[in-house]
Every structure is written in C-alpha cells, then in structure tokens.
Amino acid sequence: MKIASYLIFLCYTGLCWPVSALPLAPNGGRPEAKTCPAPALSRVTVHRVDPTETLAIIADKYNLNPATLMGMNPAWRQKDPPPGTEIMVPPTDGIRVELAPGQTWGQVAQIYNVPADMLFEVNGCEETAREIFVPGVNWSDVPSPTLAWGQPLPGNSQITLAYGWRLRPGLGEVAFHSGIDLEAPTGSAVLAVQAGVVAFAGERGTSGNLVVINHNDGKQTRYAHLGTIAVSAGQQVNQGDQIGRVGSTGRPDIAAPHLHFEVRSANELGWVAEDPTNYLNWHHASSGAGGQGGLGD
After folding, report:
1. CATH 2.70.70.10 fits 158-285, yes or no
2. Per-residue confidence at 136, pLDDT binned at 50, 70, 90?
C-alpha cells in the first residue's frame, strides 16, 4: 500500500515553520522513527563569535530571538560573549526542557500549546528522550534566589566544567551539562547547601552514587558520583550536614576527582535544571572553565 507524504507546518504565536514531509503511519498515528529527522538538539550549530558581534547581531544572522541564544548559553545571559567564544545556536527559536520522570509528550505539548505529534517529530521521534526542544517558546530569566545558600564542599573549589551546552572532547558532539563539576580530592566531605528532605540516596546509572535533596523554597539539589553516601531517603538534613564523600562512581566524563552539583526548580514540567552559580555565593573557574571543555557529570 502506498502512503502519501505531506508537509507539516508547526505554528506558535504567529510563527510557522516546516517540520518535515514524512509519511503518516497507516493508522494515522505518529511517523515511524526511521523516517523522522534528527532531533532538534542534535542539530545545534556551534558559532564562533567575531569581534564585531553581539548576541543580538548573531541572533539576527540566524533569524532567531536573542532570548533563544540566552537560554541556550547561560554564561552569556547578562553580557555579550567576547570574541572567539563558541556559543550554541539551535535550528529555530525555542527552549530546552528536561522531562520529569513519567512525563508524556502530550503533557508537555499541552503546557506549551503545541501539537504532541509535531513535538514528538521535532525531537526525532525518540520515545525515551529525557531532554527535548520545544520550538517557538521564548526563554525567560529565572528570578535570583533570596535565601542564603551554603556550599557543597568545604572551602572554595575550582569549577572544572561549567553549566550549559558543551562539546564532548574528541567527539565533536554537542550536549547539555546540567550542573557544575567542582574539583575535590577523593574522600572530601560533601555537604548539604540548604536544609531539606532527602528525596533519593543510592546508585543511579551514569550519575553513580547520587543524593537528591528537596528544599522548602521549591528548589532541589543533586550531588553525583559520590564515593560513599551518609544519608537515606526521607531523612531531614540541615545546611552543612555531611551527606557523603567525593568519589568517581557512575560514568563521569572528566577523569579528575570532582563533585557534580546541580540545582533544579520545581514547576509544571517537573524539576528543571538551573545554573548553580546563580545560587552559590562563591565559585572559582579554572582555566578553560568557561565552556570550551567537554561534557561531564
């Protein structure tokens, strides 16, 4: 049986763009994965900033909203990147969203008022995707925190890998680093940055030994690759309590011992990653920590 192809246009707030000319499944459902385009997040362009360029100028060159580039490049939300900096440019306006456990395409589509099947196709028809691109949605800044935060390690630590879009070393692949990697000797104490309740404590895939703490202000912090864990799920912790020790469990992409630390905010999409340096009153970047290194947990 011959199946006709047709061109889909996805429209949002008056903006329309073609998604693809793909055949529908015989039952009218989603297109087969083998016929779908590559996921939007795999088609991000790496742009090297020229001396005369600002984010607004770069956005105009790619026919994008400057807010899109700010959302994709957290380090340059408050100022323009210097010449020579490599920034990530998505194929169209939109935002990156991390799906909450159990969240469906239909739920995300309803939140952003886009067709679920089109959203599914824009993201390569990947049933198990954890991070997706929602086209046509403008990024907006996150309010600054008002509560005083502690630090996840004793003393000051070097940031060996910053938050945001990064290139995997030697592979040329673009991926999103959802936290910061803090250099620390193996066995160093890992501390809760705020009081809260331990939501998870145990082994979890590439994160290795992981501790997740929910805080009263709607934030969540995550501490990955721990060598040992000193707390259990459901336990109440105070700011500064030791929750584990630095290790190298899981699959870190950076060989040097470090703590992978994340901050997330609760909203209708679940727990959405934010730049941890917006919440810590100290951070020191080592040479190259501005985002030219590889991706790591």
Report:
1. yes
2. confident
User: In this structure, which topology does domain 45-89 adopt according to CATH?
Assistant: Membrane-bound Lytic Murein Transglycosylase D; Chain A (3.10.350)
CA dist., res. 26 & res. 186, Å (int): 56
DSSP 25: P
Amino acid type, 203? E
Write out pLDDT tens, residues 172-219.
Answer: 677 788 899 999 999 999 999 988 889 899 999 989 999 999 887 778
Contact residues for 230 (Cβ-Cβ < 8 A; gap 6+): 242, 243, 244, 245
The pTM of this model reads: 0.52
Spatial contact of 291 and 155, defined as CB atoms under 8 Å apart: no
In whole angstroms, what separates CA 51 from the centre of its chain? Answer: 28
Contact between residue 99 and residue 129 where contact means Cβ atoms under 8 Å apart: yes
Residue 243 has pLDDT above 90, yes or no: yes
Fold classification of 5-42+93-135 (topology level): Membrane-bound Lytic Murein Transglycosylase D; Chain A (3.10.350)
Q: What is the CA radius of gyration of the chain?
A: 20
Q: Residues 135, 97: contact at Cβ < 8 Å?
A: no
